[in-house]
Amino acid sequence: MSYAVIFSSQRTPGDNGYAETADRMDELARTMPGYLGMENARNPDGFGITVSYWADEASILQWKRQLEHLEAQARGRKEWYASYTVRAAKVEREYSSSTPGMSK
Q1: Rounded-to-10 torsion of CA 86, 5, 27, 103
Q2: 41: burial class by Cβ within 10 Å (0-12, 13-18, 19+)?
Q3: pLDDT tens for residues 36-67?
Q4: Interhelix angle for 18-29 vs 67-75, to 10°?
Q5: Cα 77 from Cα 85, distance rounded (Å)
Q6: DSSP tag of 21
Q7: 22 by DSSP, 3-state: which?
């Protein structure tokens, strides 16, 4: 069993350092105990969803309280997001499929 943190957001116009910070948060999250992976997508209108996967709730809380991540969260509220929602969920089941020759 694992956990997912689902972050859906509506971006404000312009980059304002967002891409650089998002890359840094991805790099930093990968170093955190309990981190299992991440998926994200954003449409041209600025609506996006990022799902990060964690081994347990303690790992999620440790990430939420990580100093650089706290700074990015504050900047996000101030500059990058018109709105956002964070949801945490227990992943009870997972399965997947891929077609040979097809790429994501």
Answers
A1: -110
A2: exposed
A3: 999 999 999 999 999 999 999 999 999 999 99
A4: 150
A5: 11
A6: H
A7: helix
- Interior angle at CA 102, CA 96 and CA 104, nearest 5: 65
Beta strands in the chain (DSSP E): 2-11, 35-42, 47-54, 81-91
Per-residue pLDDT tens over the stretch 69-91? 999 999 999 999 999 999 999 99
Q: CA gyration radius for the chain?
A: 15
- Cβ atoms of 32 and 55 within 8 Å: the answer is no
Q: What is the spatial distance between Cα 25 and Cα 27, in angstroms, rounded to a whole number?
A: 5
**Domains, the chain:** 2-91 (3.30.70.100)
Q: Which of 87, 24, 20, 78 is nearest to 52 (CA)?
A: 87
Distance CA 49, CA 29 (A): 16
